[in-house]
């Protein structure tokens, strides 16, 4: 799952499972938020990760429309509702 506006990617476990996009984003949000608590107070890395956490929260709250890219070479993903889903053939470079 790729979020181009944030230059952020959530990797997959390479096995089939049923999940929602919301759950994927909230898990990334929670994991990153937990990670920032382990970093030093003045850490530059902490500030960058905290910015990503803030942006992920905004996506969860759907403050503005955003695009998602799902890389699914086997074509097994399903989307409900699917009105605004656009399916494209994968690039050979990926």
From TrEMBL:
Signal sequence interval, chain numbering: none
Domain (ZPR1 jelly-roll) ranges: 2-79
Domain of life according to the entry: Eukaryota
InterPro entries cross-referenced by the UniProt entry: ZPR1_A/B_dom, ZPR1_jr_dom
Pfam entry (one): jr-ZPR1
Protein name: ZPR1 jelly-roll domain-containing protein
